From TrEMBL:
UniProt name for this protein: Amino acid-binding ACT protein
Ranges of residues in domain ACT: 89-168
Amino acid sequence: MTTLVLTVVGSDRSGIVASVADAVAAHGGNWENSQLAELAGAFAGIVEVSVPAESADPLRAALAGLDGLHTVAVQAGTDAAPRPHQDLVLHVLGNDHPGIVRELSSALSAHGVSIERMTTETRDAAMAGGRLFQATVVATAPADVDIAAVAAEIERLAAEIQVDVTLD
């Protein structure tokens, strides 16, 4: 079996996931993992599938012809063995302002920490007015990274950019 990673982007409509799943199944593939979302009328997803090696190119062609999708990018997945790592989860909450994601992601990257998943949201602040920014970041660090140093840097940065960050 060959692992493929599909990036799917289009205007949101009923049936997008079904049409991708139908194409995968029609080529003898299996839907392995995915992250899919609708945001502001657009649909985007990343999907890991496995297919017989001889079906990879025909599946690529079938996906390229799906109606209503602006982009379907297909790349070969990796079968690299997992390396020892440490998991981190950050919860961020504060008044919304430009640069929060940039600052946090730069600080994590500087310590060799890789963001695996991140969800962000802005919403009206109930009592104070203005907008609140909220994020959950799931990340991994190499086993030799000093998590205490990462936590200290995140705490320092949180005070500087005026957000609350909890680190699990």
